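A common beginner's mistake is to predict each chain separately and then try to dock the pieces by hand. The better habit, illustrated here, is to supply every component at once so that their relative placement is modeled jointly.
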Amino acid sequence: MSDAITDTMAAPDSALIERALAGDAGAFEDLVRRHRRRVFAIARHFFRQPETVEDIAQETFTKAYFALASYQRGASFEHWLARIAVNNCYDELRRRKARGEFTVSDLSEEEAGWLDSKLARASVAVQISAAERDTASEIAGRILAGLLPEDRLILTLLHAEEYSVSEIAGMLDWSEARVKIRAFRARHAARKAMQRLLLTEERKQRRTATVAA
Amino acid sequence: MDYRQFGRSSGKRGDGLLVALIKARVQAADEEADHLAASQGEIAEQFFMTRLRARIRERREQLEGGFWENTVLAARGWLLAFGLVASLFLAPSVVTLILPTSQQAPPSLASAETGLEVLALSPHDASGNAALAAGGSAALTALESIGTLPAKEAQHGR
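With all components supplied together, the output reads:
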């Protein structure tokens, strides 16, 4: 029994795909187990709620199951799955934007101070320590929440997933020029969002000072 | 610091910070997930697989149901036309079965009450012969007055 499991886990993706196409449900489940972490990671980089992450992962595997016959032999199965996952995330971002679910809340005084100090000292490459990670993560979440789904998608794919422009173009069926233009606009929009957050905080501080005076 | 200038003048610096923020967010999310996976482990995977199986089954049922629905919807026009033609063909047979025989044969009514002579006469003198067959003197007088029957024949008739 354990030998059989070892054999299955050692089998290449292509062999498991062939078996799954022949109707072997176990082979597809092995594929899911093998690539589950990657699909979850992609969903998690877009959304923080565990239910949403799991829902996207399930939807990705369900779509993969029904589209398995259209998978091109010889191509990377993980890349094919990642493509489905990214498109699912993009759909969810658009749905949420349409429902007005992304709300941009203000920075706290502490977060604004932290961002301000980083900006003042920032060179091109910025290092964030483990202790600062939670604050940085919160601020990133707020900046991304204020962006268009396309901008959010591009920034996450470029900087979180670290895909190249050509890989992103292939995933989304966009031209490379479109990806570059969108990335440029997304960075500009993100800078604006960061600026807006800091300005709001600055105004808040001024108002408090005036009231105190 | 003039924040309003930040968006325009410090693009590179802002980009560097932006990339660092996004990476920090990703690292935080991955760390959180690793902690969760370590605490739940196999059980979480089992639950995930169970839910996935149920979802695939449900989707398959939807697709199969959807196939028949789509087929019927696509052939709706044809089905309607076929039904219409079939009902047109069947209508006479249904009428024959439902209606009583007395309403179907008007000639039998004529032969029973008024006499067969009326039906046996040729069309050119049907009006006169109809009156003769009826045998009424009033009818003969009427025919004489309009001149369709010669006087001799009229006397013979009397």
